[in-house]
Amino acid sequence: MLTTTLRGVLANVSLGAGHTEDAERIYRQLVDFFEQDPDHGEAHPDTWASQQHLAEILRQSGKLRAAEKLVRRCLANRRKFEVGNNSGILDCKSTLGSILFDAERFEEARELFMEIRQDSSNLLGPEHPQTLFAMSNLACAYRAEGLLSEAEDVDVTVLDIKKRTLDNQDGAHFSTVTSAANLASTYSCQNRWDEAEKLETWVLRERTRSLGELHPATLLARKQLAETHRHQGKAEDVQALLESKC
Questions:
Q1: Is residue 107 domain-resident?
Q2: Of the candidates 77, 148, 180, 226, which lies 20 to 30 Å from 5 by C-alpha distance?
């Protein structure tokens, strides 16, 4: 068991370092071991965890068919053998939803995210982080399908909840800022540039404050605001953003 634990740690280190091929190879070994080991098999949580980790790695590598096949097997086993707390089933379904979204099967992803949102709300509460995560995924699926009014409604709800439950006197929570950026993206898709600009300006300020000027999230926020200024015809503001460090 110690050996398999160390393999899991090594796989996570490899994944964190960007060595996805090494992580995939190690997790394949773990999945094979757990599935064939008589003390584990298809009914053991360690098997499910390794299957789901491997599915996520396959998704990140663009191997979507293999990822979907594996996570569906994991989900079937969880539904068959898991009792009591079903948060693991929600995690598994969330991974499947992300795979479907990446495969541009947006309607299937949307329907699954709606199911996850309801299940998570019933199990964990309507304002639990996992429920809000499912709602954010649902809004992304709505945007991808061009259902922008529906996306806006969900984005606004998530942002309002996070402002109320996560923010404090020290400033906005990183997750709140992310949700504001999501809502700005919906406004941009609706060509509501002034509303997008207001949010994106705030997002850039908050990310610069909390993450620094050169963090990838800050650079992305600056790029998105510059794109909005371009649509507004504010050429000087675009140039200033691209030339500035903040």
A1: no
A2: 77
Q: Could you tell me the two tokens for 92?
A: 């598994």
**Is residue 222 in some structural domain?**
no
The whole-number pLDDT of residue 84 equals: 61
Contacts of 214 (CB under 8 A, 6+ apart): 245
Q: What CATH number did the domain enclosing 69 receive?
A: 1.25.40.10
Taking 60 as the threshold, does the pLDDT of residue 4 lie above it? no
Mean pLDDT of the region 154-181:
94
pLDDT tier for residue 11 given thresholds of 50, 70 and 90? very low
Could you tell me if residue 184 is inside a domain? no
The residue type at 111: E
Please give the span between the terminal C-alpha atoms of the chain, in angstroms, as a whole number.
49
Number of domains in the chain: 1
Q: Which domain holds residue 66?
A: 1-84
Distances 236 to 30, 241, 243 between C-alpha atoms, Å: 55, 9, 11
Q: Say if 1 falls within a structural domain.
A: yes
